[in-house]
């Protein structure tokens, strides 16, 4: 797992995690303040959580806060480019059901 910390425009630190962050699917996540954005690589899904109000990450707020999703996703993409982050690739020998 890669871990990076960088200063943001607002002065709050961002923490970035990249694959694998959670089983069973690989992805990346960024946390800034109360917000955590998760990007799932297998289906390009984005999830947004307010950790102050929802520590268990039960209520995906991505549809309600597209501006925050866009801002955090942009930071995540920039960070991955800056560090030349590697993505997991499909296993051609994996058995599918």
Estimate the helix proportion, in percent. Answer: 10-25%
Query: Order of SSEs, N→C?
Result: EEEEEH
Alpha plus pi helix count: 1
- Largest β-sheet summary: 5 strands, antiparallel
**Mind telling me which CATH architecture this is?**
2-Layer Sandwich
**How many angstroms does the end-to-end distance come to?**
28 Å
Overall number of structural domains: 1
- CATH topology term: Arylsulfatase, C-terminal domain
Global mean pLDDT = 81
Which band does the percent of strand residues land in? 25-35%
Radius of gyration: 14 Å
Count of distinct strands: 5
Summing up helix and strand content along with how strands pair, one would put the structural category as alpha+beta
Unreliable segments of 5+ consecutive residues: 1-11
How do the strands line up in the largest sheet?
A: 1-2-3-4-5
Q: What characteristic shape results from the CA principal axes?
A: globular
What is shown here, in short?
This protein is α+β, with helices and mostly antiparallel strands.
Account of the 3D structure:
With 97 residues, this protein is of the alpha+beta class. It has a single domain, classed as 2-Layer Sandwich (Arylsulfatase, C-terminal domain). Strands 1-2-3-4-5 form a five-stranded antiparallel sheet, with helices on one face.
Layout of secondary structure:
Layout: E1 3-7, E2 13-17, E3 27-32, E4 35-40, E5 45-50, H1 66-83
Antiparallel strand pairs: 1-2, 2-3, 3-4, 4-5
Primary descriptors:
97 residues; alpha+beta; Arylsulfatase, C-terminal domain; 5-stranded antiparallel β-sheet; 19% helix; globular; disordered N terminus
